[in-house]
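Thread amino acids onto this structure.
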């Protein structure tokens, strides 16, 4: 039996206005009318996702090509938590 691994897709680019402010990122989410203040690794996760649908493990693989993420086995659950939180905010969608 194979466990279902959820995939996530970033919200459409035209649904968000993103502005950098020092070490944080302001993201205005047009559909909800809310502005979110986020810090690393949220902007990096969004950039890594691009328009593709990915599992947390796939996101870790993409991020590891650009950043030293340490132990991938420990990074996957942490990225999964971030993806779930981001889905709650509407910044990513589960697919």
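Threaded sequence (95 positions):
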């Amino acid at each position: 039996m194979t466990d279902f691994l959820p995939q996530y897709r970033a919200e459409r680019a035209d649904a968000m206005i993103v502005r950098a402010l020092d070490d944080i990122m302001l993201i205005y989410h047009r559909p909800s009318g809310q502005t979110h203040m986020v810090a690393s690794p949220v902007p990096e996760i969004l950039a890594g996702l691009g328009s593709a649908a990915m599992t947390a493990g796939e996101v870790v693989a993409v991020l590891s090509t650009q950043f030293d993420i340490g132990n991938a086995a420990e990074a996957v659950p942490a990225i999964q938590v971030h993806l779930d939180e981001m889905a709650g905010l509407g910044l990513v969608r589960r697919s």
